[in-house]
User: What shape does this take?
Amino acid sequence: MANRALSTTVDTYFEITKRGSTWGREVRGGLVTFVTMAYIVILNPLILGGFSADQASKDILGNWLQNAQVGAVTALTAGVMTILFGVVARMPFGLAAGLGINSFLAVSVVKDVTWPEAMGLVVIEGLVIVILAATGLRTMIFKAVPAALKTAITVGIGLFIAFIGLVDAGFVRTSGEASPPVQLGDAGSIQTLPTIVFVIGVIVIGVLMARRVKAAILIGIVATTIIAIILNAIFKVPESLGTNPAGWNLNAPVLPTGIVSLPDLSLVGQFDLFGAFSRIGGVAATMLVFTLVFTNFFDAMGTMTGLARQAEIAAPDGTFLRLRSALIVEGVGAVAGGASSGSSNTVFVESAAGIGEGARTGLASVVTGVLFLLAMFLTPLTQVVPLEVAAASLVVVGALMVSQIRLIDWGEFSVALPVFLTVIVMPLTYSISNGIGAGFISWVLIRSLSGKAREISPLLWIVAVGFLVYFARGPIQAWLG
Assistant: This one.
């Protein structure tokens, strides 16, 4: 009786039955989301840290973050924030260190400040987002976005995550030439085993989806990983860590010799809240915070819109229940990421894979979060599934999201062009916020100059101006000195 009462309570709280889901779907969806996100525990340390001082991302004083420490706090923060999001917002979204912001910190910010000072800027960014969400301004902007643009964001994210999958798998690579800038595989052909494994994964998962097999994505990931392990054992493909185009992207699919390792969490709390303002001045530090806020604000908004529509739990205007709570928790993720030195945590677009597996509630997020916490101690196991296999699931889910393009009215060109720009700019610039910015600016200009200015929300005008500043932040910062 006690177990049945607990099951009923959990079902009611997360609205599992109400949303047409089951416990099995939520667990499978949470597991699939973790599998497609687990790469961040490996990749984030490679971006922020290093195995030695010779190849690390050093700050202005020559200090650097150790890979093992960054990996531990990456898993810790992702686990805590994903569980919190699942319990509070009750949506099937996973949170972890955002790739755009961590790269921006490692490449641009720490050349002028120390790592603790850079993470202090991230904490400030998160606090700003929390305030915007708590006051309702973030929700108001969310609701001011036209339905056509929200659908375009979903479609653009679908293309974006598919493109991420193609790039991660080596199916699409930079050519090294001005034209064409990208090419198919190596020298225009598929000739590496990891990329072939990716193609096998797309076919396996695609066939299972087409045949409406339950747990299609999870089964496909497991099956393709087994195939990858066997092929890797036969052909001994090198693990490249991104340096060898013929090797695996991040981790080779091998059975681990060890399983348990103790995490080093000494980076938690190592941030300096206002140190950057003293070191580089108020104007420069404020511009950095502005960039971080704008990137996180609209990346998360676009991702939540796309995922909610993909999960079929969004209202016609793209909003969903407990939207303000979701936006506040996402802002807290930025604070937590900076406070732990793992970079700003945000909603991951890879959550679409778990949604494609059937996840519809926050219970799936709780499952994903628990697995991230376990990953702190079971780091070797997180490296069994190669990134190429996870990439295959992203391509399949991308196809599902792009199918919503049928909801857009292409008959009116003042709608069609902003929608098109939103969709195409996301994958081509590798940024959700860039696509949203292009869509917002073109929507305001084209619609207003076409005699439809009265139909545009004043908030959309303000945000469009903000994006103009965002896109021109380099010259503006140089002009301000």
